[in-house]
Structure formats: C-alpha cells, structure tokens
C-alpha cells in the first residue's frame, strides 16, 4: 500500500475545487490507496458529482458597521450584509475569514453563506448613537453586497434605505449587476453627493472571467451596469483589480471600455495571497493554466518582494501595509505605469467626488421620513 493523490477537477460554477482545510484545523485528511479500488472509486465520484449547492444560514448580529484602521484603505467604515460570497472569485482576499467560522476558505466560502438578517436595524441603532461621527460607509469591501442571494433577501437594499433616510454617504464596490435595482435609491443620494458606485471589471475576456469569477456578472454585463449608473447621474468608477501577471493582461482595454460606458474614475490593486488564498490560487493555476503556473507564481512573488530564501520556505506574499495593495519592484512598477498612462490618456481620475457629511440627520431614523 502507498500514499496516493486524488486528481483535482474544476467544478462548474465554482472557483475553488476543494474544501481546503482552514489554518485552525488540527487534522489534515488525504487520499490513501488501501488496495481495494477505493481510490479509483473516489476519483470517479469526484468526476461525476455535481457542484455543491449553495446553503444560506441566517444570523442576528450585535454590530453592523466595521471600523477600518488599515492605513492603505481609503474608507473609515465598512458594511457587509453577508459572510461568504457566491461569486466564487478564486483570488478573493476575504476567503480566510471563513476560517473563523470553522469553515473552509475554499468551497465553503462560496457555498455556505451567512446572511445578517437584522443588519439594517442594528446599523440604524449605531447611527443613532450620540458619539457616532459620520464618515463614508463602504459596502462590499469584504463580500459582495450584490451576490446572487441579494435578489431574494434584499439585505443590501434595506441597509441603503436606512442611509437614505438619514442622509449618510455611501460608496459601493460590486461585480453584481443587481445594483441596477437600487438606482431609485442611489440616484437621489448621488444628486446630493452622498453616493458613488465602483464596478469591478477584472477582464473583458468572458472565458477567463468564468474561471476567475464563476458566478459574477459577465464582463459585458458589468459594462452595461456602468452605463446605466452613469446615465442615472450616479458617479461611477471602475476597479481593475486584482492585476495578475500573465493572467488578466488587458488592463488598458478594460479601462477604455469602462470610460466609454461612463466611468470617470478608476483604481487597481495587485493579487494578494493571504493565508489560505495562496494554496487555493495555486490549485486553480494547476487546474486551468498548468503550463504557466510556475511562471505566474514567480512573477507574483517578484511583485511582492519575496526573496529566494522566503520562496524556498513556501512564502508567496508579503502582507506589509506599505506594499500589499500595489506591490513593489519592477513588475509592480510596470503595472503602475500602465495604469497611470492609460488613465491619463482617457481622462480618468480628473475629478474627485468628496462625500458630504454635513447633511447627516440621524434623528430622521426615529420617525417617518421621505427620500429627499
């Protein structure tokens, strides 16, 4: 008898291929050939099994608004109606948060979701607190507020309705076309400099997007969302994040298409690989781009300033606040130059939209209030 490895297979509609053990687990499980043909049966079962179904669990939260203390993040407050994200983006830096729930950052992150059903009520009580100071609230900074289950549950919309009532500024980052549903709320807010939306378009290549972000809106659909938001008078920007060397190399084309659709601001980050994201991304590369997997990982390591000695010890990423978002070194500098030149050529980022804080009226949450 000998140790054996069950080959991985990509799962249709899912980014991860396994329920990778999280970093707090004490036991690791692997395949073992017992000589009775069970290994072959396991391979067959894995090939024939359908992609796992999405499960939603509800929770009542004690707090809604998160405070940001990271010096490299532009917003002060965050709001996330869900834990986990069905979009299944393999590169998502939020995947390791599922480890705190004793769930896998792999398949569990995109199939075992948690909905914060009392989020709007808790947020309203926090906004009413005497010591609360209004700052821009960003929705979708950890998991997407417009992932598929939002169509049914409407937790993101409920939160925006609270912000509308008290005239609190909000910025939304999403890959979901579902944000179009809430234009009726966001357009009046935008008219008073209280709302902006940023649509992430990682690539214009539909086939690549289906592999990277299997349940997010298609690239052409996101461009249509940008156009609809812009036509409604809502300041809209585009996020071309993350940049992954030798994977999504069409940054300039994405920026041009987004500008044509109405986006007037843009930002990017490079691929980040914290905790379990690193082995998950390596699995993804072996499944989809095995011929260039080593080349891609070498450039990612270069981009994060990982030394040869660190690579030998298995390190792929440096979480230093000063460099984790944009990287460091030659490859990071090339990406920065491409981004800046493309934005300058198009006229992106010429106007900065500052949210208004002086309109905040928390007392309106105590009684009936109209939109504006």
UniProtKB/TrEMBL annotation:
Molecular functions (GO terms): catalytic activity; iron-sulfur cluster binding; metal ion binding
SUPFAM superfamilies registered for this protein in UniProt: Radical SAM enzymes
Domain Elp3/MiaA/NifB-like radical SAM core: 75-298
Record key words, sorted: Iron, Iron-sulfur, Metal-binding
Region (Disordered): 31-55
Pfam families xref list: Radical_SAM
NCBIfam families documented for this protein: rSAM_PA0069
Protein's recorded name: Radical SAM protein
Organism: Rhodoferax koreensis
């Amino acid at each position: 008898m000998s140790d054996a490895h069950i080959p991985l297979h990509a799962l249709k509609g899912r980014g991860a291929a396994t329920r990778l053990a999280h970093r707090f687990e004490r036991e690791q499980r692997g395949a073992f050939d017992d000589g009775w043909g069970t290994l072959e049966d396991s391979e067959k079962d894995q090939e024939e099994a359908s992609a796992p179904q999405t499960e939603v669990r509800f929770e009542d939260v004690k707090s809604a608004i998160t405070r940001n203390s990271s010096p490299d993040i532009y917003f002060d407050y965050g709001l996330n109606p869900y834990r986990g994200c069905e979009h299944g983006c393999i590169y998502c830096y939020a995947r390791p948060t599922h480890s705190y729930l004793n769930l896998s950052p792999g398949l569990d992150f995109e199939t075992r979701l948690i909905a914060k059903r009392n989020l709007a009520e808790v947020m309203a009580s926090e906004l009413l607190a005497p010591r609360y100071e209004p700052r821009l609230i960003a929705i979708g900074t950890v998991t997407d507020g417009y992932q598929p289950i939002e169509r049914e549950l409407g937790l993101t919309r409920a939160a925006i309705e609270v912000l509308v009532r008290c005239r609190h500024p909000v910025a939304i980052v999403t890959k979901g076309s579902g944000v179009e549903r809430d234009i009726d709320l966001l357009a009046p807010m935008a008219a008073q400099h209280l709302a902006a939306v940023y649509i992430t378009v990682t690539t214009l290549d539909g086939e690549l997007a289906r592999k990277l972000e299997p349940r997010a809106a298609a690239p052409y659909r996101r461009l249509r969302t940008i156009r609809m938001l812009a036509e409604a008078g809502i300041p809209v920007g585009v996020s071309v994040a993350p940049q992954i060397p030798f994977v999504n190399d069409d940054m300039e084309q994405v920026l041009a298409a987004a500008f044509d659709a109405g986006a007037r601001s843009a930002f990017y980050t490079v691929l980040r690989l914290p905790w379990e994201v690193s082995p998950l991304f390596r699995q993804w590369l072996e499944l989809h781009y095995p011929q260039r997997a080593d080349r891609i990982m070498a450039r990612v390591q270069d981009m994060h300033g990982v030394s040869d000695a660190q690579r030998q010890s298995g390190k792929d990423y440096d979480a230093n606040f000063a460099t984790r978002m944009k990287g460091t070194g030659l490859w990071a500098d090339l990406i920065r130059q491409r981004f800046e030149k493309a934005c300058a050529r198009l006229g992106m980022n010429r106007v900065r939209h500052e949210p208004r804080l002086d309109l905040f009226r928390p007392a309106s949450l105590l009684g009936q209030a109209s939109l504006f």
